[in-house]
Specification:
CATH topology: TIM Barrel
CATH class: Alpha Beta
Radius of gyration: 17 Å
CATH architecture: Alpha-Beta Barrel
Strand order of the largest sheet: 8-1-2-3-4-5-6-7-9
Distance between the termini: 37 Å
Structural class: alpha/beta
Number of domains: 1
Number of strands: 9
Order of helices and strands: EHHEHEHEHHEHEHEHEEHH
Helix content: 40-55%
Shape: globular
């Protein structure tokens, strides 16, 4: 048992779980599932995106889903992914959206593939989105994708990710999530990055968005916890993950197992276990 336990923020990511599905989940099912998640007590719900419908057709109905659930979402912090100013403006039209998530890649190749921009062009977009969010009283979450390596042969070291995190902190971003996009994170690198960044930037909430094969996530979580990370993304039953991962079994951290593990170790998650069990039971109807 670790000493000095406290609260750990759990971010549930139905958006990441759904976005790569080869079949369409109707808006009505998304709405029903999101309503179930509202009762669980997650710190944040990563529930949709306002990006090109051609790029992510599965989430083209995010506006419909948000509109239908607006009356019930009170008390929940909602996050949506945006990649440009147009998407940010669309997202900010919904008062219940608290966070705009931006996918910034440590890998130049992945940035080009993901948002059709170079990293420096993406920085310019991100700063404009930051200003729009600030005007609306909202926050940005910067995801440092490929933060633990990439499959393209682009140069990588933990120092690369640390430099980008330092730059984002200097721009005033208060939420930065280190993303193990292809499930390649070495626990030693996890410990190195969080152990360096968290003490240097106490004003920033550093989160972990890990992907992993089943049963391979605990060592990453342990390394992050021991280094001071107190914010973790997951998806019920581990659905989702990056299609560029080398192993088809690589997916999100299974939220229900993550919560079980954290609470067994003495951490507080704020999760309503009965409501979470209900959501877990309903998930297979969404993720066939």
């Amino acid at each position: 048992m670790r000493q000095g336990k406290g609260e750990v923020q759990i971010v549930e990511c139905p958006r990441d779980a759904m976005q790569g599905l080869p079949y369409h989940v109707p808006a009505e099912k998304k709405i029903e599932y999101l309503r179930t998640l509202f009762d669980c007590g997650f710190h944040t719900l990563d529930c949709g995106s306002f990006v090109s419908a051609a790029a992510v057709p599965q989430l083209a109905d995010t506006a419909q889903v948000l509109q239908a659930t607006a009356a019930e979402s009170d008390g929940n912090r909602l996050l949506v992914i945006v990649a440009n100013e147009r998407g940010a403006k669309e997202a900010l039209a919904f008062p219940q959206v608290q966070f705009l998530g931006f996918p910034f890649s440590v890998s130049e190749t992945f940035q080009l593939r993901n948002t059709n921009t170079t990293r420096e062009e993406a920085v310019k977009r991100l700063l404009r989105i930051r200003d729009l969010a600030a005007e609306a009283g909202k926050e940005c979450v910067v995801y440092l994708s490929m933060g633990f390596g990439n499959p393209y042969g682009d140069p990588y070291s933990p120092e690369d990710t640390a430099r980008w995190a330092e730059r984002m902190a200097a721009y005033g971003f208060r939420y930065i999530s280190l993303s193990d996009t292809v499930g390649a994170a070495d626990p030693a690198h996890v410990a190195q990055l969080f152990g360096e960044l968290i003490p240097r930037f106490p004003e920033v909430v550093f989160g972990a968005h890990f992907h992993s094969v089943p049963g391979g996530w605990r060592e990453k979580v342990d390394a992050a916890l021991d280094a001071g990370c107190r914010r973790f993304d997951g998806a019920i039953k581990g659905f989702g993950g990056c299609p560029f991962a080398a192993d088809a079994l690589t997916g999100n951290l299974p939220t229900e197992l993550l919560v079980d593990y954290l609470e067994s170790e003495g951490w507080e998650t704020g999760i309503d276990r009965e409501a979470l069990a209900s959501a877990v039971a309903k998930a297979p109807a969404i993720f066939q």
